[in-house]
Amino acid sequence: MKSFTDGMQYLDAQFKKLELPDTHYTDIEFEECLFEDCDFSRAKFKQCKFINCDFIRCNLSLIDLTGSKLFGATFQESKLIGVDWTKATWPVYHLDFELKFQRCILNDSSFFGLTLNELIADACKLHEVDFREGDFRKSTLSGCDFTHSLFMNTNLENVDFSESTDFAINVLENKVKGARFSRYEASSLLELLGIELVD
């Protein structure tokens, strides 16, 4: 297969080494599909559905998901730079969309205002990612690099930040009750309050 067909349904299909940058698709449903070593950079998937799909070593940078729905999607060792996740459709009757990112690069992305409880990001790069106004309760964001990422009015209750680094989270401007941080990195939370730590 060299491309997809608009309006089609793909069930339990495997797509390997597809090179489809800058392509446009509409109203396609993918369920239980595997995407491996594919390039969908700058592609547009509008009004599509990705249900229980796995993306392994794919390039999804600057992908446009306007009006699309994702549930149970797993991304492994993939590039998702500059993705505006707010363009996708996130039904209000769901709080947990079972999204999982493992060893991915999500720099310059936006989750502004989204409710994505129990989101999983493991050993990911999350530089300059916008988490403001979002609700990420009970998420696992461990082993990640949050350099210059934005948190403001963000619900981070019971989030596991263990082994994560370089976050700037003001505990007065975000909900952090029950959140877990590595002991050394937790000191940065106090520095934002103007508290000086001494040995």
TrEMBL record:
Organism: Nitrincola iocasae
Transmembrane regions: none
SUPFAM superfamilies to which the protein is assigned, alphabetical: Pentapeptide repeat-like
Gene3D superfamilies given in the database record: E3 ubiquitin-protein ligase SopA
Name listed for the protein in its UniProt record: Pentapeptide repeat-containing protein
Top-rank lineage group of the source organism: Bacteria
